[in-house]
Design brief:
150 residues, 2,3-Dihydroxybiphenyl 1,2-Dioxygenase, domain 1, ten-stranded mixed beta sheet
C-alpha cells in the first residue's frame, strides 16, 4: 500500500465554474429547497497574493458556498485576469473545476505532488488560510485543491 500524499481521503468541496453565478445559485437552491447563500468576491491581489502559473495575478472571482454536510459545493464565476477559473470556463464551459481536500503542511504536500508530476498552478490566501490548485487534470481528470486553514 502506498502513502496517502494528501494526508486525508475526505473530499470537503467540489468547485464548479459558471458564467452566471446568480442563475447557477438559484438552480441549485431551488433543486435542494434551501435558501441561497450570499455571493462574495475574492480578495484583491494586495490581500490574496494570488499567483497564477508562477506569476502574480489580479484574478478574482464571485463565489457562493452551498453547505451539504461533509461536502460543500462552491460556485465560481471568474472576473477579470487570467486564472484557472477563467481557463476552465473558456475550455469547458459550465463544469467541474476541482475537488478540494483540507491538508496540513501545504509546502510538503505540494513538494510530493510536484514529484509525482503534478505541480501547483495557482495559489492564494483568504482570511484564515490559503488555497493551492494543483495541475493534476492530465493524471486525475480534475484539478486538486489543497485547503489549509491557519
Amino acid at each position: 500500500m502506498s502513502e496517502n500524499i494528501l494526508g486525508t481521503d475526505q473530499v470537503c468541496q467540489v468547485g464548479l465554474v459558471v458564467r452566471d453565478i446568480g442563475k447557477a445559485l438559484d438552480a441549485y437552491c431551488t433543486l435542494l429547497g434551501i435558501p441561497c447563500p450570499p455571493v462574495v468576491i475574492t480578495d484583491a491581489y494586495e490581500k490574496a497574493q494570488t499567483m497564477y502559473r508562477g506569476q502574480p495575478s489580479l484574478a478574482q472571482a464571485k463565489l457562493a458556498f452551498i453547505d451539504l454536510g461533509q461536502v460543500q459545493i462552491e460556485l465560481i464565476e471568474p472576473i477579470g485576469a487570467p486564472s484557472t477559473w477563467k481557463d476552465g470556463l473558456d475550455e469547458k464551459g459550465y463544469s467541474v473545476h476541482r475537488i478540494a481536500f483540507k491538508v496540513k503542511d501545504t509546502p510538503q504536500v505540494v513538494e510530493k505532488l510536484t514529484q509525482q508530476g503534478m505541480p501547483p498552478i495557482q495559489q492564494g490566501q483568504y482570511t484564515g488560510g490559503m488555497y493551492t490548485y494543483i495541475d493534476s487534470a492530465k493524471k486525475l481528470g480534475v484539478i486538486l485543491e489543497l485547503l489549509e486553514n491557519f
